[in-house]
Amino acid sequence: MENNHTEVTPTGNLFRNRVFLAIIMSGLFLQVGIWVRNFAVLLFVMEQTNGDAFAVSMISVAEFAPIFIFSFIGGTFADRWAPKKTMVWCDILSALSIFVVLITLIFGTWKIVFFATLISAILSQFSQPSGMKLFKMHLSADQVQAAMSVYQTVFAVFMVLGPIIGTFVFQSFGIDVSIAVTGIAFLLSAGALAFLPKDRPMEEAGESTLLQEMKSGIKYVLGKKELSLLGLCFMAAGLGIGFINPLSIFLVTEQLNLPKENLQWLLMVNGVGMIIGGAAAMIFAKNVPPQRLLVFGMLVNGLGIAVMGLSTNLWITLIAEFFNGLMMPCIQIGINTLILQKTEEAFIGRVNGILSPLFAGSMVITMSVAGVLKEKFSLVTTFETSAVLFIIGLLFIMPIYNQKQQSKPEILNSK
């Protein structure tokens, strides 16, 4: 039945694939909007509250809370809805919410800026799995990993350029223009997605309720060895990153005995490593199975974090940070490619919606206790604990390490 639908035929050259190009262009506009918004809101709230820690922390809550609350729901709806329409409407609604925030900001309270982050973060939980679904529909199996490499490289580039662009726009033009730029970027993203081929007719959801579909998603993940192991790996990595994320500044001030401003060098070196790692992953994507990329990335990151925790020399710390950045695309590309390769099209949204909160939830748990662990034991103990969690994470993937790369995408079982 599915063969009657018109689809974009995957071409040998990824950069001639209409779906891939539209999603990458959309991603570029979204990254500009997100980074301008994030830095404008951060610097604006710092200004308005004189650096109040609670107000600043609420920005992160607005960004991460939707992952817990809406990721699984959004993923379930993404499996029900036509992907192109879902993504375009999410971008349009994000832009409209941004312009409402702008009007309220001009005539009302400054506290409305939190909603600029919150609303688009909620909508992205519906949009992001739809993008994954389109990759599954319109890319051949051997193109998926290369596509994910390019997608990840876009994120890596903005890890370096994003803070610079966001800070420049806010400092040059202020909060009103920054929010307006964000809204325009979301509209441009919707415009790029208009070049996607028309959605094919979606299968009817039948009699199943939303709750039943959510349950079948959980059952599907638990029933697939690769996805269950990936979930455990996600949790271990999330726990590990949560320990070190809030404490990087102490690595500079306590371990290296340098002024806090030197943190920027660690972040910059990490970002450059991510760009080079993403580019290298593009070159080798076809030859290395995703689970091997993931294991290798987790191993190097675990060792890098261990070295950073012990190092008292700036150059050794910078080299370790560079390798961490270099391997991060391997982890993210490996995870996303495995999800796409091992998941049937009808379950992409729900699988994504189950695994994403596992990572984010684990990260938030350890972020909340990282400071206490550091005070009770030491900074070195916290970093070494994080390194051990990365090694545990890679052990979960070892049972599928030698699994052969599939040459065909999984076919949806007809019921």
UniProtKB/TrEMBL annotation:
CDD domains: MFS_MefA_like
Protein name: Major facilitator superfamily (MFS) profile domain-containing protein
SUPFAM superfamilies, alphabetized: MFS general substrate transporter (SSF103473)
UniProt-annotated location(s): Cell membrane
Pfam families (alphabetical): MFS_1
Residues in Major facilitator superfamily (MFS) profile domain copies: 19-405
Transmembrane segments: 20-46, 53-78, 98-123, 144-165, 177-196, 229-251, 263-284, 293-316, 352-373, 379-401
Membrane topology reported for the UniProt record: Multi-pass membrane protein
Gene3D superfamilies tied to this protein: MFS general substrate transporter like domains
Domain of life according to the entry: Bacteria
Source organism: Neobacillus rhizosphaerae
InterPro entries attached to this UniProt entry: MFS, MFS_dom, MFS_trans_sf
Keyword tags: Cell membrane, Membrane, Transmembrane, Transmembrane helix, Transport
Main location group: membrane
Presence of the UniProt keyword Cell membrane in the record: yes
